[in-house]
Amino acid sequence: MDGALERMRLAAALWSVDGAQNGPEIIDAACELLASGYDGVNLAVLAGVMRQHAADEVPEFLEAALHDVGLDLYPPDAHEAQAIAVGHLAARTVAGEMSPEEFVEWALTGAEDFAEPLLALGSDYVNSARPRREIDAEVLVEARRLAFDFEQYARRVADGPCFVCATVAGHPDYRHHVVFEDDETIAFLNREPTLLGYTLVGPKRHLESWVDDLDQAAFERFQGTVHRVARAIAGTLPTERMYSMSFGSRLGNSHLHWHLAPLPPGVPYERQQFHAVMAENGVLDVSDESQAELAREIRSRM
Ligand SMILES: [Zn+2]
After folding, report:
1. Are 106 and 193 part of one and the same domain?
2. How far apart, in whole angstroms, are the C-alpha atoms of residue 191 and residue 193?
3. How far is the CA of 302 from the centre of ligand 1 (A)?
4. Which tens digits make up the pLDDT trace of 16-72?
5. Number of domains in the chain
6. pLDDT digits 0-9 by tens, 89-127
7. Do 117 and 12 share a structural domain?
8. Where are the transmembrane segments (predicted)?
C-alpha cells in the first residue's frame, strides 16, 4: 500500500474511532490521493469539499470516495479501525511525537478494545504519587507492544511494514543495531551488509524523497548527521573510501534512507564501487554479536 493510500486508510480509521471529527484530514488525504494519480468521481468531489463545510459534507461523500480507491468505510468504533489508529498513535508516542499521557488519554476513549493494559496507568497519572517519569516509562512499554501488534497486523492486511518506520517503532522483526539516534534521525547497521560497517541513515518520519520532502535546511541537517555517522564509521574501521548513496523504490523500501558503505583498503578495482554495494554479489556472513559490538564501537565515536 503506498503512502497516500495508507494515509487515507489511517484518516478513515480515525474518523471511525474519533467520532467523525477529522474532516479536514480526510479532505487532505483525498487531495493527496488525486495528486498521487488516483482517480474517481467521488474522490474528486470529496477533495473539493471546503474545509469549513467538512462536518456536513464529508459524511455525504466519504464512503463512495473510499470505494473509488478500494477502501471500506469503517463503522463507528470498528475493531479494525481501532487497531490501525492505536498502532499509529503508539508508534508516534514511541517516536516522541505524542506524550505518553496524551496517548493514554486518547487510547482510553479512542481504542477501548486495546486500552485495558492502560487503564491503571491512566488513573496513575491522575491519582498516584508515583513519579511521572516512571508512569511514562511503563506507558512506553505498552506503546511499543501496541506498535508491534499494529505492524504485524499491517503485514497481514497490507503488503508489509516500512522497514525504517518498523525499526523506529521497535518492531521485534525489525531489530537493527542502532549506531545513532536523535529526535529526527536514526542510523543502524545494514542487516545484509556487503561491506563491514555498512550503515543506513534515515529520517524517523516516513519521508520518501530527499528532493521533494526535505527543504534545504532539513536536508543540510540530515546530511550533517550522515557526515557524523560516516566519520564515526571511518574512525572504527579502516576505510579507503566512504560510499554514500540514496536508493529505495516505490515498490519497496520507499522510506528515505542513506547508504554509507565503507570500502576497506585492498579491494581489487573490479570489486569496488557498484560491485561492492550489490547484495547480488554476496553479503558478509557476520554474527549478530559481532555486529552488536561493531555498533557499540561506532556509537561510542558519535
Ligand atoms: Zn517509513
Report:
1. no
2. 6
3. 24
4. 998 888 999 999 999 999 999 999 999 999 999 999 999 999 999 999 999 999 998
5. 3
6. 988 898 889 999 999 999 998 888 888 889 999 999 999
7. no
8. none
Same domain, 187 and 259: yes
Distance from residue 269's CA to the centre of ligand 1 (Å): 35
Note the pTM of the prediction, 2 decimals: 0.50
Q: Residue 90: give the domain boundaries.
A: 79-168
- How many angstroms separate the alpha carbon of residue 276 from the centre of ligand 1? 26
pLDDT of amino acid 158: 53
Model pLDDT, residue 157: 39
Q: How far is the CA of 204 from the centre of ligand 1 (A)?
A: 7
Q: How far is ligand 1, taken at its centre, from the CA of residue 152, in Å? A: 15
Stretch among 15-24, 143-152, 194-203 having the lowest mean pLDDT: 143-152
CA of 268 relative to ligand 1 center, distance in Å: 36
Centroid of ligand 1 to alpha carbon of 184 (angstroms)? 13
Question: Is 73 domain-assigned?
Answer: no
> Are residues 295 and 255 part of one domain?
yes
Ligand 1 center–CA 3 separation, angstroms: 9
One domain, residues 193 and 284: yes
